[in-house]
Model the fold of this input.
Amino acid sequence: MRYQLHGKRTSELFKTKAEAETAASQVRLKVANEGAAGFSLPRDVQVEAAAAVETLKAYEGETIAKAVEFYVAHSLRFRNAPPVAEIIKEFIAEREKLNQRDRNLADVRQRLNVFARTFGTRKLAGITVEELATWLRDPTWSARSQIHYRRRVSMLYDFGIKRRWCEVNTAALLDNPETEDKDVECFTVEECARILEHADETGCLPLVVFSLFVGLRRAEVARLQWENVNLAEHTVTVGSKTAKKRSQRVVSINDTRRLAGDVRQDQRPGCGRIKARTRFSHQGTGDAGRGEDVETERVATLLLHLPPRRWQRPGADSIRSRQLRRDRSTVLQRPCQ
Done:
């Protein structure tokens, strides 16, 4: 028996004539039913179907049924997902439950709020790669800022995927821009001495001392409490809540300077800061080693905000060993000679 169905010619063999006639009657019934269903469709649906078939002709083997199945699986099932603004709220709430540090949470909140200004009412799954790329390549943002924004938005997409609010991390499809490493800025020994002379004027002498000579990161010094400083044993304990990677370590205080004095906790109600009456002595820097008593408050925002000057005079390489290198947030420990 030979017949044509859905535009495809088919041949089948049967052992008896009766079997062939039964199969033929089934085919004729199927053609009649499908034809009736087609004629029962509204005229506008027939026109849309014809247009869809015409579009799919460019893709061999694809049908309207396959196209609809794909659309349902990759788009319609995210129709009930919350808008971006709501997802951001839930994402930040979850980060708070994960014991994230306030500084990290503030950065996440600030960058995602900027993202919400453009896409807050949209669905994550509905934002195209082109739209996200246009937003991310803002000419007013530096390459480093674009990288930070992409990282935070990518975290939001990963959160949405876990909640089944989107299927693809669109931010991960974008490449990071190239960044150029800046020259390492250095303080000379003389510059460090001048900073130390004037540090108590801004109330941050201990902060400068711990940063220049103990080798603590700026954020670590900002979180450091005087109870972590053991002047008798010449050590500083950087606890898990203070360290960048939440791993405790003990840092030795070398012979470059001496810190001595009585430490007392501030008794003001509601104040968690620590004050100290500290005597500072710096060996081998002339007037900087006169040892003045100063009353300081641990003001983290003042830490090393004095603008550094690069060493650019001739013969810099020959005296580089006398410099204290400051690489962004980390000050390398090196005793003054």
Notes: The chain is about 40% helix and 15% strand.
